[in-house]
Amino acid sequence: MTDPLIPLRQTWPADLAARYRAAGHWRGETFPALLRERAHRFAERTAIVGGDERWTYAELHRRAETIAAGLLARGLRPGERVVVQLGNIAAFYAVVFGLFRAGLVPVYALPAHRSTEIAHFVRKAQAAGYVVADRYDGFDYRTLARELLELDLGLREVVVVGEAEEFTALASLAGDPALLPREDPDPQSVAFLQISGGSTGLSKLIPRTHDDYIYSFRASNAICGITQDSVYLVALPAAHNFPMSSPGALGVFHAGGTVVLSPSPAPETAFALIARERVTDTGLVPPLALLWAQAAASTPHDLSSLRVLQVGGAKLTPEAARRVVAGLPVKLQQVFGMAEGLVNYTRLDDDEDTILGTQGRPISPDDEVLVVDDAGQPVPDGEVGYLLTRGPYTIRGYHNDDAANARSFTADGFYRTGDMVLRQPGGYLVVQGRAHDHINRAGEKISAEEVEDHLLAHPQVFDVAVVSIPDDYLGERICAFVIPRSDDKPRPPEIKAWMRTRGVAAFKIPDQIVFVAAFDQTAVGKTSRKELRARLRAEFLANEAK
Ligand code: AMP
Ligand code: DBH
């Protein structure tokens, strides 16, 4: 168990840490110092446009200071964790920078998460606070806060952006600035906990330090051409690692540019904002990029300010990449990243084959990439293997999860990404698929095991196997093969509706449910789940092709 008052640590071996410092990757920058300095240097420039809000850097800084002092006045103590679940609203960044300033540690939840996921984050992080919007995208998060408080998990403070009802209103936060820490945090301390998609079971918490994360987006800025003239549209959920840091909103703040928040990634909404704010850069998952490319042909909006469209989160096939480029007159950049660290980009001046056909190469000369076989032996370039990585912004362990750490890291500190890749001679990676049974549904990573666990709790479900099925629009969809308990089987919509009552994110609800009489067992006896899923998927696809 972690003492709330001891800053969480994430440690690299001394020799590697010395190397990362000597190379200038880790510069001792921290988030509070970053905003203070930008507020000074870019004071009257626009930092954020979201809804009716339009804040300068000075305004963002002022709000973050007020929130920080207010949270400490409410009794939260530096080092404690606070789950943040806000949509794409300006307050998201004021809250996050406020937490950094107070020495509190944000834990990033997505708007789609529900009580099951949030309770898991609160438990794992031993969170003391929870910040939500009153309503977002038609959902009332105050009901979620009430459910959580009833679980008695140690949450002491709920702060609401908007109508707070019985909770603390963000707008009411106030505190004596003397409460604020006098010194900037240790740049090696953990600034926040990001969440993983979770390949086995529930999401894991990813501790990122000031030094490592700031390096990742500062270096991304150079690769992506972000400057103080950049106007970046956050079309994906703001808390996701991609629009946050690759180079994302934080990269743009580092450069002194403008971040524009879109309440939805739908073309109608996003295109109007692009035209109005003269947006230059944005990032999307593949299905959205295809949708945008199609919608661009007939839009009345002027998209001519767009310079770079980044696509990542799931595999963009060469054919899809070609369609994106044909539909949108912008530079395409493929991004293959992970909240655990390693981010790869195609470079803006790469040749067309590289941009269309690869997922890029790492940010840093100190990113170590290994592509290995089943025995852990490196395979030659051009052959497919498991991707392992270690480097100046890749974590060395998850937060409070020994079992996951034993599985996910090698003895010498390489992170097992779970991705199968092929490395080209120039170091460019081509993603081939995954080693684990997780489903990448339009960039949302979903653990097959987690969905199976929920379905197994259904009274009429005897057994279940959840697999990914290729899908034209989503990339992959969730298919659940269900053995009913009796002939009186529930209807698929009933199962879906029931799963909704379990308090899980809607993107985890199976897209398709197929009833089967039995799972055939191999001669060897008990089949592994992994083999079973692979066989069910193969049989299903073979039948579909008939
Ligand atoms: P997470 O660990 O939840 O942050 O998810 C990161 C994972 O998303 C990676 O390990 C990949 O499996 C997947 N991913 C991200 N970007 C791409 C991409 N451009 N192509 C293929 N897979 C991707
Ligand atoms: O999918 C991801 O997690 C991801 C994709 C692109 C990511 O974390 C990133 C860039 O930083």
TrEMBL record:
Domain of life: Bacteria
Keywords: Ligase
Lineage: Bacteria, Pseudomonadati, Pseudomonadota, Betaproteobacteria, Burkholderiales
Pathway named in the protein's UniProt entry: Siderophore biosynthesis
InterPro entries per the UniProt record, alphabetical: AMP-bd_C, AMP-bd_C_sf, AMP-binding_CS, AMP-dep_synth/lig_dom, ATP-dep_AMP-bd_enzyme
Organism: Pseudorhodoferax soli
Parts of the chain that traverse the membrane: none
The AMP-binding enzyme C-terminal domain, residue ranges: 450-526
Ranges for domain AMP-dependent synthetase/ligase: 35-399
Name of the molecule in the record: 2,3-dihydroxybenzoate-AMP ligase
Gene Ontology terms, MF aspect: acid-thiol ligase activity
Gene3D superfamilies referenced in this protein's UniProt entry, alphabetically: 3.30.300.30, 3.40.50.980, Luciferase, Domain 3
